[in-house]
């Protein structure tokens, strides 16, 4: 059964770009969004104008701010929302997802597929819905006007994994019918922990908080990650790698990632960042009210630290960033962030987690 | 017995100002310092030139970089060194301190007198040496040349406490013979926890790390403590007050302190800092290699957090600052900072700590 129809949930820049691009490729696309505002011009135009790396018009056959039984007709569901909304989207979709549908989070951040799956089950959905997550959003994009979006560039390759990984082939076959740039990750543990945004987003924003609030522009990577800030980022990265190791994964460090993704080498992280021409001119956020804290802390650092705590891996720098960012934003990211319970991993050992994400085997007592 | 001779340990700006001022007042002053460099011009001149709030020449009868039996002749010993050196100074003095001598730390930061007393005992000194600490250094000063120091201004009043507080009258009588601006604090818990530097120094420096390293000058308080940074500082301050409360102390908040010390009022800490004319023009440190981290973290935040942990008071923001500052400076402040053991408080309950610092009563099992 070939994929003909794709539902896209989320009409931010990524969701609009996804809907437009798939429409342009000839798929029948539905676009859902909680608020109607971005949808109205799309409904009026019958689709989305695409510019940049890909130009044209992507028809969208259906736009809606409520999900109904028609979701069942879309074999592939692309979720392109901030990770903090994954559970809510799952609850929203739960009554209408059935056997054979495939849901992919772009991206999952840390534990997105696990949280989505758990929320579906909690909402009473027992259907054979295959949930997976991509390691990153496949393109850089920006909304440039009503019903108009620009794609700056595609990633060369994006890894994705199904939950459980035993069904990776099935997920990838479906996904690649639509977007061939996806390749299989080992499991959602890999896509979840190979989360470079978790390393590069919250810490430098936190350690530049007053400068961001001063309103003076500065370059986020090249000026915001000074030698001292780079040492904190490296300590955080080492904790991420230690959590991954406790789950049997050997991931590359942020510094190795810079070398592989950009050919940017350096004796340390600071030098590697300075050596990366792709970071030139990337400005810092203009406010601390920004997804670098509000998404990356609760949906990346909190679940990583929760895994660390469960597995006996100390994450003091990660914990510190979570608490300081919470104090800075006046919120408790521990409470509102992605917990082991939300990911359906409460009480599991490293081995039980591995068995569940790879083979789908879960001890009876663990089943929600 | 009137005080005639005062030993000053430490020849930084504070120690030189202390020695010069006491010399000018007519006391016979010895000045000790680990390194000989600042002492040589003082030895050559026979004292220190004083300028600023007080002008003149303060004779110094003895300068030395080793301490010997002659220390016994100085009834009052003023320790004016970074708090991270308190234990080392105690070990240095231990063989030469005897009954009736009074040692005062200017200031103790958090747990200075406790740490000094414990180090004396550990070094085998069992004499009746009265150890106390001041809440802050009594003047603002700066070294302006060889054997030359400027006092910018005196605090109106500085609180000090003896260990135990039952001997406050004795300590204050001795101290006030020399410097009448001292008044009695409840106990060293008050001088140790009413530590505003611990609140205002490490967190803003950490949250401005890249800006400090950029070399661009900015005002430490008025620009470095933006609204978001102020929220972190207030969360930290609330933890300090909670630790104090667990020890039976009701201390004023940093915001109340700004109102009392400077008449600077505001709806929140940010507004109070903006309203404080005394903070105008105070530049930020030029490097993260600075006592705001290297002294205030190990000798203020670490002992406060250790007390919190012992007493079941969560200090997640404080812990976070300690860990992030450690990562930033490439050191483990938990390990090198002031522990409960160093303060001689290991295993004590809140009530045992209170009894020890106020009455000098210690359970047999606790005696070093």
From TrEMBL, chains A, B:
Domain of life (superkingdom): Bacteria
GO MF, one example: oxidoreductase activity
Residue span, Ketopantoate reductase N-terminal domain: 6-108
InterPro entries for the chain: 6-PGluconate_DH-like_C_sf, 6PGD_dom2, KPR_N, NAD(P)-bd_dom_sf, Opine/Lysopine_DH, Opine_DH
SUPFAM superfamilies: 6-phosphogluconate dehydrogenase C-terminal domain-like, NAD(P)-binding Rossmann-fold domains
Domain Opine dehydrogenase: 185-328
Name assigned to this protein: Ketopantoate reductase
Taxonomic source organism: Thermaerobacter subterraneus DSM 13965
Phylogenetic placement of the source organism: Bacteria, Bacillati, Bacillota, Clostridia, Eubacteriales
């Amino acid at each position: 059964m070939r994929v003909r129809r794709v539902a896209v949930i989320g009409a931010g820049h990524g969701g609009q770009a996804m809907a437009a691009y798939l429409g342009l490729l000839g798929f029948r696309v539905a676009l859902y969004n909680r608020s109607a505002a971005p949808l109205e011009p799309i409904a009026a135009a019958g689709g989305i104008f695409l510019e940049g790396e890909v130009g044209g018009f992507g028809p969208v056959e259906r736009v809606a701010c409520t999900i109904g039984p028609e979701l069942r007709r879309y074999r592939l569901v692309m979720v392109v929302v901030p990770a903090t909304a994954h559970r809510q989207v799952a609850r929203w979709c739960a009554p209408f997802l059935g056997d054979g549908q495939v849901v992919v989070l772009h991206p999952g951040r840390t534990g997105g597929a696990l949280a989505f799956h758990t929320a579906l089950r909690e909402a009473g959905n027992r259907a054979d819905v295959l949930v997976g997550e991509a390691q990153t959003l496949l393109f850089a994009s920006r909304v440039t006007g009503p019903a108009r979006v620009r794609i700056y560039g595609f990633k060369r390759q994006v890894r994705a994994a199904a939950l459980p990984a035993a069904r990776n082939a099935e997920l990838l076959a479906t996904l690649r019918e639509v977007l061939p740039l996806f390749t299989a990750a080992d499991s959602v543990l890999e896509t979840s922990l190979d989360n470079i945004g978790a390393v590069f987003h919250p810490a430098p924003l936190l350690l530049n908080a007053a400068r961001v609030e001063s309103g003076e522009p500065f370059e986020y990577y090249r000026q915001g990650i000074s030698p001292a800030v780079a040492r904190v980022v490296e300590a955080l990265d080492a904790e991420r790698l230690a959590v991954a190791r406790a789950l049997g994964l050997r991931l590359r460090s942020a510094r190795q990632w810079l070398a592989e993704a950009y050919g940017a080498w350096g004796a340390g992280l600071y030098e590697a960042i300075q050596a990366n021409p792709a970071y030139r001119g990337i400005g810092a956020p203009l406010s601390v009210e920004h997804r670098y804290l509000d998404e990356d802390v609760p949906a990346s650092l909190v679940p990583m630290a929760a895994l660390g705590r469960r597995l006996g891996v100390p994450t003091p720098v990660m914990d510190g960033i979570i608490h300081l960012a919470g104090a800075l934003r006046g919120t408790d990211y521990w409470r509102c962030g992605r917990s082991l319970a939300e990911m359906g991993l409460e009480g599991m050992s490293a081995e039980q987690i591995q068995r569940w994400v790879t083979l789908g085997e879960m001890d009876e007592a663990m089943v929600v």
